[in-house]
Amino acid sequence: MQFVDRILGDESGLGLGASVAAGPDDSLIVTRGYSREAGDPGAVLRYRRVGDEWVRSVLFAVDHDSDLMIGTSLASDGTRIAVACPSRNPAVHGQVVLLDLASDPPGVVSITALLDDLADHVQFGREVDIDGRWLVVGAQDFEWPGRAGHGSISIFDLKAGERSRPAARLTAPQGVSGWGRVVAVADDRMFACAPGSFEGPGVFIIYEYQAGEWQELQRVTPPPGSPAGDRFGFALSVEHDLMTVGAPDMPDGHGSVHTYSIKDGRFKLI
Questions:
Q1: pLDDT tens-place string over residues 153-192
Q2: Which of 110, 137, 181, 249 is most exposed, with the fewest beta carbons within 10 Å of its own?
Q3: H or E element: which one contains 121?
Q4: Residues 6 or more apart from 122 whose CB is under 8 A from it?
């Protein structure tokens, strides 16, 4: 693999590269991350190659006094970009912004779900993924003073056009921590990783859309011999029938990556 180019932030681009995604027409979608020091909630930028230069335009931004943290996660399905925007204020709901780059100017739709736990409201939009029909939004389990959020995953059916109420909401299974931290969707399968705590084991669960419902298809725990607190499920990549799971916090500090492939209808460690 050959190094091609580098895009550097300037004084107005603090936190550039907090999240990245591929856009249409060989463009690059990049977030300028939330900066507490600068009082900047962040922004979503598009870079297009013109000659020997990258030309920048702003796709989405909010006022500096906004409580949202723009772009903690980005996801693209070609022409649509889902932007995660959790809140830093326990009184303000997080949201997801859906940018339709097929139109000019890009269409902008804000999505907010009414969840049971206030802390889940705040963390709504911490993680996001999109694939055709489905938009999946994670609200990581989180604790505000006096309020405990147990984490949730909201699944929106974009084909149905319903953007205010999720088609399904999955709460954390018993004994699972870190729920809503990592989500992915591919076709009619949804992947949810819960990396657990530094003491407890992580897990990822695969769901499949069957007969109008999201049903648990498979639950995968760390391979035998994995140490406690390895944060199994901290990162996830899904490509066709191949899945890669990151566990960065091994006791020796080296971390590990586990790769799975489908065999007889189930993901198995390679």
A1: 889 998 887 666 788 888 877 777 778 888 999 888 999 8
A2: 110
A3: helix 118-123
A4: 86, 87, 89, 90, 92, 93, 94, 142, 144, 149
- Type of residue at 50: V
**SS3 call for 229:** coil
What whole-number distance in Å separates Cα of residue 107 and Cα of residue 103?
6
Instruction: Tell me which amino acid residue 224 is.
Output: P
Name the CA dihedral angle for 47, 158, 167, 108, rounded to a multiple of 10 degrees: 50
- The CATH homologous superfamily to which domain 1-171 belongs is Integrin alpha, N-terminal (2.130.10.130)
Which comes out higher in pLDDT, residue 85 or 122? 85
Place of tokens 């959790």: 86
Question: Please, which residues have CB within 8 angstroms of residue 262's CB and are 6 or more apart in sequence?
Answer: 241, 268
Number of residues assigned to the chain: 270
Which residues make up the CATH 2.130.10.130 domain(s) of the chain? 1-171
